[in-house]
Amino acid sequence: MALGHTLFRVAVGGTFFAHGAQKLFGWFGGHGLEATSGAFDSMGLKPGKRTALVAGASEAGGGALLALGFLTPAASAALIGVMHRAVRTVHLDKGFFVTDGGYEYNLILGASAFALADIGPGPLSLDEKLGLRMSGPAWALAALGAGLAGPKLLERLAPADELAAAAQAPEHAPAPVQPTAVA
Predict the structure, then answer these.
(1) For the chain, what is the HEC assignment?
(2) Is the backbone peptide bond immediately before 47 cis, with ω within 30 degrees of 0?
């Protein structure tokens, strides 16, 4: 049981890490932050750079934590949040199947993160080695709640239109110096 549990956790966490690293760094054949930012802007996920940074950091950071079995409910919350937002903003209107751009893959990854928050990271994990006992239905529901609320909270803390307006506002530069005639 420990081997299968560990393999499942590492596979899910590693998949998330790789996907986030594609967004952030262009690793594993990804496009990197600038290109991902532009793609997010074109999909209406504005401001694209902030959205890409949060999504990539949630996936890479949450995936790394999950793969290590460290702070598993927090890792699960980050991953549930990014999958929920991906379903809501990109995949839902395309139906269920991933072959049509649907949300089946996102649903399985989010459900896997939820399941790991419930069953825990397993005996071959940092949580276990450090004596952190954070699993069970209450932890899973807390991860789900935080994951669903997190993206909304970020939007309220820094609304996209306020950030976009700030980015477009001219900086206060000193008045140009008028040339003087030299005698």
Answers:
(1) CHHHHHHHHHHHHHHHHHHHHHHHHCHHHCCHHHHHHHHHHHCCCCCHHHHHHHHHHHHHHHHHHHHHCCCHHHHHHHHHHHHHHHHHHHHHHHCCCHHHCCCHHHHHHHHHHHHHHHHCCCCCCHHHHCCCCCCCHHHHHHHHHHHHHHHHHHHHHCCHHHHHHHHHCCCCCCCCCCCCCCC
(2) yes
First to last CA, the chain: 90
pLDDT at 169 over 70: no
CB atoms within 10 A of CB 83: 26
Q: CA 143 to CA 139: how far, in whole Å? A: 6
Report the predicted TM-score, pTM, of the whole model to 2 decimal places: 0.83
Q: Is the pLDDT of residue 81 over 60?
A: yes
| Contact predicate 80/113, CB 8 Å | yes
